[in-house]
Amino acid sequence: xxxxxxxxxxxxxxxxxxxxxxxxxxxxxxxxxxxxxxxxxxxxxxxxxxxxxxxxxxxxxxxxxxxxxxxxxxxxxxxxxxxxxxxxxxxxxxxxxxxxxxxxxxxxxxxxxxxxxxxxxxxxxxxxxxxxxxxxxxxxxxxxxxxxxxxxxxxxxxxxxxxxxxxxxxxxxxxxxxxxxxxxxxxxxxxxxxxxxxxxxxxxx
Length: 205
Fold this sequence. Notes:
This protein has helices at residues 17-36, 49-67, 87-111, 139-155, 158-186, 188-196; strands at residues 43-46, 120-122. The protein has a single domain, classed as Four Helix Bundle (Hemerythrin (Met), subunit A) (Up-down Bundle), CATH 1.20.120.1630. The chain is built from six helices and two strands, in the order H-E-H-H-E-H-H-H. By secondary structure, it is mainly alpha-helical.
């Protein structure tokens, strides 16, 4: 804050190579994610609109907040920095972003045609416990959250942490909903899987 009580917002320049790198990585991931949706199994059971809104609205808000332009009145604090500008933080952020999204892609490949963007049960739905599913029950969410953490470190602004929090809340609601359906579909097999494998962080959560 300088004389006159006006808060100075330290933004990451749109033309910053760090910002360009982050945007390019996310766009490449989204392209792969969209193309990978082709050829999935038909849905046998689909979530209701109300159920989808519970986790989709926070995710949409997170995406808008992460990539929107300069702030308007009332939310300027979100563009204040919680980290000092430093190449070290930028490199650390990229070091989390890349393996995070890579982990999510590995999980997507392992899940194969059983994947869906919403809570669904597919025709001939399979219980996948191989690859990254040996370590966590929802490795796609783990990878995306790690990528968002890395993005927040690159940007260094409070909005990045809010985006991470919004995504974490959305994924937590979604995974609880998914797991209720998986217990109905697979019974004791899935219950045993839940006992031996954490949801998002191996050995912790």
